[in-house]
Design a protein that fits this description.
Protein name: Smf/DprA SLOG domain-containing protein
Organism: marine sediment metagenome
Order of helices and strands: HHHHHEHEEHEHEHEHHE
Helix content: 40-55%
Number of helices: 11
CATH architecture of the largest domain: 3-Layer(aba) Sandwich
Strand content: 5-15%
Family: Belongs to the DprA/Smf family.
Pfam families: DNA_processg_A
Distance between the termini: 33 Å
InterPro entries: DprA (IPR003488), DrpA_SLOG (IPR057666)
Structural class: alpha/beta
Largest sheet: 7 strands, mixed
């Protein structure tokens, strides 16, 4: 990747710029934003306007973004990113930007792909035989039994179980998978250092420490969960699987973003 990781995270996650703009910067090694800290306010506004005038690039409220860059730099956010990169690496977190060769092809082809994925746990994971088992956070007794049984049976047949690691069906399917000695992929709606839900923190660490799978998030590791991110993560778990098994849920369920 041509753009440095710290610049990519600053521009993509803190400013933030859309992926279409990041692509232009990445594909243009001479672009001034490769060293944006040297630019003055007028130069930053000029470059943002140039990006916004490109085909298929939409940058809203450019004056606000110019001020954002100034404020972020004044608050030493860039320096914090550099410091955090070292800390995250020590904690076993892998950072894979969209333009990295290791970025999963399955995620590149979806609508609104993540700019970056952060992972922790098993590396060099094979996504080719993954199934998503999902459903309500409050299953009936029958639904709970089915979730665990289906997770177990798919795992016996060599499938990796993928879901959003939510309470209820998601967790039960994962537990069934682990009983069969299978592997799991948990897609979080929070950062990896703030795993959600809190009831699953122990299970989160068990999966990582015992090499039973890995967790993935499109959010910065220190980010907390939001209602909106719980819905949008579903497109990722769906993309990583070859199919979805839906076990109970209402028509208003966040799962509608996945199916």
């Amino acid at each position: 990747m041509n753009l440095s990781l710290q610049n990519y995270l600053f521009l993509g996650h803190y400013l933030p710029l859309p992926l279409s703009a990041l692509r232009i910067i990445e594909e243009t090694p001479s672009h001034p934003f490769h060293d944006f800290k040297k630019l003055n306010k007028q130069e930053i506004e000029f470059e943002l306007s140039n990006l916004g005038n490109r085909k298929r690039v939409s940058i809203r409220n450019i004056p606000k973004k110019v001020n954002n860059i100034e404020n972020l730099l004044k608050n030493s956010i860039f320096d914090k990113i550099v410091s955090n990169l070292e800390k995250w690496k020590e904690l076993g977190i892998t950072i894979i930007p969209y333009f990295d060769d290791k970025f999963p092809l399955k995620l590149k082809t979806i609508k609104n792909p993540p700019k970056t994925i952060f992972t922790i746990g098993l590396s060099n994971f094979d996504y080719s035989k993954s199934i998503s088992i999902i459903g309500t956070r409050k299953p009936t007794a029958y639904g709970a039994q089915m979730a665990e049984t289906i997770g177990l049976e798919f795992s016996k047949r060599g499938f990796t179980i993928v879901n959003g690691f939510a309470n209820g069906v998601d967790t039960l399917a994962i537990k069934g998978c682990l009983k069969a000695g299978g592997k799991v992929i948990g897609v979080l709606g929070s950062g990896l250092l703030n795993p959600y839900p809190k009831e699953n923190v122990e299970l989160f660490h068990e999966i990582i420490n015992k090499g039973k799978g890995f967790f993935l998030s499109e959010h910065l590791p220190n980010d907390s969960v939001k209602k909106s991110t719980l819905a949008t993560r579903n497109r990722i778990s769906s993309a990583l699987s070859i199919g979805n098994v839906f076990i109970e849920g209402s028509t208003k369920s966040g799962i509608r973003y996945q199916l």
